[in-house]
Amino acid sequence: MNTSQANALRQLLQTQETAALGTVHDGAPYVSMVPFAVMPDGQGIVIHVSGLAAHTKDMEHDPRVSLLVMDAPRPEVPPQALARVTVQGTARRCDAESPSYSAARAAYLGRFPHAAPMFDLGDFSLFRIEPHGLRFVGGFAQAWSASGESFARAVTGRA
């Protein structure tokens, strides 16, 4: 991934707050919407989800997930030309005792400070999605793939 590509990925992840989360639900694809934050070290994407949600149960049963983050639609840009990234990874619950919990919580609350009261609710949990690979589309004829390691370097500015 070159510097321009890394900058485009970082910009997209910094400006968009929600993602489409794809999980495996009863053996079939299932997509829902989740707010997300990126870990400061680039080692994952953090989501805070309710135990009542189907996607949470899905991640506990099968941790393979996919996230789609897409730029906001604009009248002057055809939908096919909108910047977007699909991240494939593994979702792991961040228990309060885990070493990454404090950083994950800080990243999430740094982006969504209004969500602090939800951390007091017993049925909400943090999950960290460890990227294995990604596919970025920056518009027409501007697509490229990268590894999970490249994701970490790009989002931390070390690409």
Q: Indicate the low-confidence ranges by residue numbers.
A: none
The structure class reads alpha+beta
How far the N terminus sits from the C terminus, by CA atoms, comes to: 7 Å
Number of helices: 4
H/E element order: HEEEEHEEHEEH
Silhouette = globular
Share of helix, binned: 25-40%
The value of Rg in angstroms is 15 Å
User: How many strands, which pairing sense, and closed or not: the largest β-sheet?
Assistant: 8 strands, antiparallel
Would you count the extended β strands for me?
A: 8
Share in β-strands: 35-45%
Walk me through this protein's architecture.
It is a single chain. With about 160 residues, the chain is of the alpha+beta class. Helices cover about 25% and strands about 40% of the residues. The protein is built from four helices and eight strands, in the order H-E-E-E-E-H-E-E-H-E-E-H. Strands 1, 2, 3, 4, 5, 6, 7 and 8 form an eight-stranded antiparallel β-sheet that branches. Strand 3 (about 35-40) and strand 4 (about 45-50) form a beta hairpin. Helix 1 (about 5-15) packs across helix 4 (about 150-155). It is globular. It starts with a helix and ends with a helix. The model has no long low-confidence stretch (mean pLDDT about 95).
